[in-house]
Design a protein that fits this description.
mainly beta; two-stranded parallel ribbon; elongated; two-stranded antiparallel ribbon; about 80 residues; 4 strands
Length: about 80
């Protein structure tokens, strides 16, 4: 499955610091993780948050990383919370 559609498929993800291959990969890795039955995705980008405001009224930000978010964009809705 890709962002352009298609059905999910079983495959390999080869990593050497960064992703170097996706699909059938020959050989054995130094470390292998069996993700059978799981969904492997890249990090998601959260396009609309209010972390800029939440940073003022909350002693801790709600973690997005537990939902697969690796990048959060703030301040793009036209509202500014900075004094």
């Amino acid at each position: 499955m890709t962002v352009w559609g298609g059905a999910p498929y079983r495959g390999d993800v080869a990593v050497r610091g960064v992703i170097v291959a996706v699909g059938p990969v020959d050989g054995v890795g130094r470390r292998e993780i069996d993700a059978a039955g799981l969904l492997v995705t890249p990090g998601f980008i959260e396009l609309h948050t209010h972390y800029d405001g939440q940073a003022i009224w909350s002693d801790r930000l709600n973690p997005s990383s537990s939902h697969g978010v690796t990048t959060a964009i703030i301040g793009n809705c036209g509202v500014g919370f900075a004094p």
